[in-house]
Specification:
The chain is 45% helix and 15% strand. The chain is an alpha/beta fold. It folds into two domains: 2-118, no CATH class; 142-435, Rossmann fold (3-Layer(aba) Sandwich). The strands form two sheets. The protein has a seven-stranded mixed sheet, sandwiched between helices. A four-stranded mixed sheet has the order 2-1-3-4. The radius of gyration is 24 Å and the shape is elongated. 39% of the residues are buried.
């Protein structure tokens, strides 16, 4: 009897998928757990969604949310055959979601009957992400900041090297031409930051959230500055120190493993490249006050951050979309995103003058797409380093964020500021010197 019920469930799902494939003119197929396909003549090399067991359907019926999808994806119970998430999204149904829900493109009666058949089927397993601690915005506590950062960055330096550029840059790339490769675009990014800061030999530069030290090394080698970095990631700290020593830069480049609030000294130039995403909206006053304290009166501050879109009211703007929150929890817990208006307001509020704002949305989308493709090409080696679950989390996160930037659902901005003062700023009258 149980076998007969299982057969009926499979037949019902197959009929539903055939109906969906035909009415929505899907450009991909399905491979079911018994080996059958939709359509029946699906070529072996065709793009398809693989469903490993009936518990996958049961789980999606009972809890159709981002966390369920993430667990099924990282365990490969829900998989993409012969392609990537980007390929699947490129061939997504042309129908609108509300039309599908209203039954205009999907047989609602058949969908309901199928859902009922799976409603009490065990969801199966494994569920590797269920024990992740709940994500919440950072409280600003240095120890919590350390845990969050090390969770996101301390998997394995060798793992990150499989998709990062040779400088181990992990933030937005910068394309002088959209056809440039990823390493070139990352070198462009390091150089445009240095040029915007108008670095001069002998100046002291601080990089808050210095990652694997790419900006520190580039600024010291190409612009002759004394560069200092701060990170909370033990893996990044170890990598950076080894690289500095290997390049013979120990007298000109230093790094400390510390919370940014504990950094001391005065600096001619300060850079922060997407580290502020980890700070939390409630703690930004502390962040800007710290930068103000560390920056010399005539210094320059380069500020780059990822942003959401401004909503009609600030209270709404603070709510993260559920899907974005889920993937942030599994990759970078504690992150929060403001909007560009908030960033500019805060800079003025805490004593800075804004000189320049550049939108990097398309740069970020393309750069992350190229990083995804590098990881996808090296996924076997990556799995040996950190395991299949972590690799699949990163592939999904990279794809989801790249697509969100490509669709203009979020942005990235680079801002140049200085301490507000009377009289001339000392900057050139135009941006022309940046692009010579």
């Amino acid at each position: 009897m149980a076998r007969n019920a299982a057969r009926k469930r499979l037949d019902s799902l197959r009929r539903l998928l055939i109906s969906a494939h035909d009415t929505m003119r899907l450009e991909f197929g399905f491979v079911l757990w018994d080996g059958s396909t939709v359509p029946a003549d699906l070529p072996g090399d065709a793009l398809a969604i693989g469903i490993a067991d009936e518990g996958v359907v049961a789980a999606l019926v009972r809890r159709p949310n981002a966390d369920t999808l993430a667990n099924l994806w990282v365990s490969a119970r829900l998989d993409i055959r012969n392609g990537t998430i980007f390929d699947l999204v490129a061939r997504r149904p042309k129908a609108r979601s509300r039309d599908i829900v209203r039954g205009k493109t999907l047989d609602r009666r058949l969908a309901l009957a199928t859902a009922l058949r799976f409603a009490f089927v065990p969801r199966g397993g494994p569920w590797p992400l269920e024990n992740f601690r709940p994500d919440r915005p950072s409280s600003g506590d240095p120890e919590e900041n350390r845990r969050n950062v090390q969770f996101g960055y301390d998997h394995s330096n060798q793992f990150h090297a499989l998709f990062a550029d040779p400088e181990m840059a992990a933030t937005s790339a910068y394309f002088n031409d959209w056809s440039e490769d990823y390493p070139t675009a990352q070198r462009n990014k390091l150089d445009i930051i240095c040029r915007k800061l108008r670095l001069e030999p002998g100046e002291r530069m601080l990089d808050i959230g210095s990652g694997w030290g790419g900006l520190l090394v580039h600024a010291a080698q190409s612009y002759g500055v004394m560069a200092h970095g701060v990170t909370l990631s033990q893996a990044q700290y170890d990598w950076t120190r080894q690289r500095i020593a290997g390049l013979g830069l120990s007298e000109r480049v230093t790094v400390e493993l510390n919370d940014y609030t504990r950094v001391q000294g005065q600096y001619d130039k300060i850079a922060q490249v997407e580290m502020i995403d980890h700070v939390g909206l409630a703690n930004r006053s502390t962040f800007y006050q710290t930068v103000y304290r560390l920056l010399k009166p005539d210094g320059l501050y380069f500020h780059q951050e990822n942003t959401g879109l401004a909503k009609p009211r600030d209270k709404i703007s603070r709510r993260r979309r559920a899907a974005f929150g889920a993937y942030s929890r599994y990759v970078f817990p504690g992150t929060e995103y403001g909007h560009i208006g908030l960033a500019l307001t805060d800079l003025e509020r805490f004593g800075f003058e804004v000189h320049d704002v550049e939108g990097l949305r398309e740069h970020y989308a393309l750069g992350l797409r190229l990083a995804h493709d590098r990881l996808y090409a090296n996924r076997a080696a990556a799995e040996r380093e950190v395991g299949a679950v972590t690799v699949r989390i990163y592939l999904a996160w990279m794809a989801a964020v790249s697509i969100a930037f490509e669709r203009n659902r979020c942005c990235c901005y680079a801002v140049l500021a200085s301490k507000r003062r009377r009289g001339p700023s000392g900057l050139p009258p135009t941006r022309a010197d940046l692009y010579r």
